[in-house]
């Protein structure tokens, strides 16, 4: 018996050492929790019909597009990069109302307004246009769908890309998220979204008074330059609308600046009043414009010679469109078109006229000038779009970002607008006079255009989520005050066809979790370990007991435990 | 971490102490009082170490490995040896043989160390959702620490309580004790000087503790031999 015990102890030692090294080799330390900014798909009701993402809080395991075809996804969040998006998959899941725990779309950084210079992008930007088309189509589908689960947008970065790689690896090997490997759990702690009651809209109005001669008793005519400034998009916190209608706002501000220089000197002041309007509610049938016009008194409304509305003039190349509601044979329309097209011809591009009759019984207002036309005011919309967008489309959504707007196009638009207005005001028709020639003190200022475009490209502007005294609205007001007199804020409430819900952006916590199965296995391993340890200690103790029980002291039996 | 996982990690951290106590003759010889006294001595030693660390060490802005600061930490770490000396020599032990005395002291010492250093992180971690391997590794580290503590207690018993040691073994005993006593500094150097990750450090600790336990066991057995 005595010679066997040391060998038994050494074997146990070797086993323990081997177990330890195996365990150490299996351990793979991973990163801790990741926190990602996420932006929720808009939630709204239209005439009581629910649309958009109807939930905000999220607490599910994550999966990628490589999930098993038979997997139950009702308690799973799908993490889908836009680069791998299969549009038929989205259509299938939305049309068939298949249950999902949630959706998170990963957008490339080029769509982020915080990524102005394109730094930190891991991917090539050469695939801009296809990604833009995919995102545009996705946005249309999501806006018009009713999704009973949370839908969020996030931007690619190193952390979430690493998480996505891990999730894909798990999904490819066919391990469900609740297996021993655990997986990732996505948690968004958010309260139930609440209705936004009485969403405020604010119109900003500026006025440049014309030169009034003493012998002239009648009211001076007025020209109105109008642009809508708020947006609508799939993610309200990301709807910056650089082109629609950031470009229009920038153009209006620059035109106001140029004409304030002219009108500040009595010698160059025209005999027309200039009315500048920055209106709200544009995506919703130009509701703000409608209310703004109804607040006009009769004399002001009758004095408007014509109104020119600016809409999406930031990414055109060779031609612009003037959209009108009166017939093209109308004398006023013909004059406007002649003014604009002659200036455009001199500047090297083309301005087309497009007539669209107003259907009074149709509540849809496609262009801003239609709100003027319904009140019998001559009006037109200058736009790069050849056809009118559908309701809640092309209203400054996810694809409308700084990367896709050309400031040179805005500069040319400003030049066209200012020169055409000046010919109308000063009666220079037919003469080749350029008041706003390049390199003169009345030239269009590209840095001014660029600065305001950058500001607008970083400011989400969905109307219900603006407060009454939003700093952006105050900034627009102050800028208009610098160039015009009599700046007024006209406040009203958005009409009730569309009801909005809050909770537009939040933080997503990504946890790497272990499953109960893993912990059960761990409990078994620990139990076995403790049993082995107990046995080992008793065996060594038994030698000691043998020593105590024997009252002799042979030298070969004097081994002690360490 | 879930509550289930918390219990698993707690079993891994504190279970071996209970198993050691119940499996060995310590439970039969009523050495619980000695273990409790050793634990109290450990807490007092930890307090003294804390005061010394706060007094003599400056807080470095960077996490780089500073040899002078680490040397100072190692010197302060020898307060543990002084505390162990006190626990082994000055505490009154009722009728407990030398074999059981050092085991009881080592066990109490290791248990107090685990309670002081690992119970709070374990409890705080139980509130979070995140699963990490850190708590399992901490439990394994507690096991290594238990083995090291008993080894150091055994070597201390040989150094301070046994009179007639073979002369050829005395340098080996002191060298082994020195290695075991500086083990915290060695692991700190591996972690911050060489940049080892936690799993690798824990693996090294487990391996080294088993090696030192084997050596201590052999030394203890060798010192027993001439007494018969």
Automatic annotation (TrEMBL), chain A:
GO terms under cellular component: endoplasmic reticulum membrane
**Biological processes annotated in GO:** regulation of signal transduction
Topological type in the membrane: Single-pass membrane protein
Name the Pfam families for this protein. Nicastrin (PF05450)
Q: Where is it located?
A: Endoplasmic reticulum membrane
What InterPro entries does its record include? EF_Hand_1_Ca_BS, Nicalin
- Highest taxon above the source species: Eukaryota
Question: Which segment of the chain is annotated as a signal peptide?
Answer: 1-32
For this UniProt record, give its keywords in alphabetical order, as a comma-separated list: Endoplasmic reticulum, Glycoprotein, Membrane, Signal, Transmembrane, Transmembrane helix
Q: Which PANTHER family match?
A: NICALIN
By sequence similarity, the record places it as follows: Belongs to the nicastrin family.
Q: What is this protein called?
A: Nicalin
TrEMBL record, chain B:
Regarding the membrane, this protein is recorded as: Multi-pass membrane protein
Question: Which domain of life does this protein belong to?
Answer: Eukaryota
Gene Ontology CC: endoplasmic reticulum membrane; plasma membrane
- Give the matching InterPro entries: TMEM147
Residue ranges annotated as transmembrane are 39-59, 71-92, 168-190, 202-223
Keywords from UniProt, A to Z, are: Cell membrane, Endoplasmic reticulum, Membrane, Transmembrane, Transmembrane helix
Q: Where in the cell is it found?
A: Cell membrane; Endoplasmic reticulum membrane
Write out the similarity annotation.
Belongs to the TMEM147 family.
For this entry, the protein name equals: BOS complex subunit TMEM147
Q: Which organism is it from?
A: Glycine soja
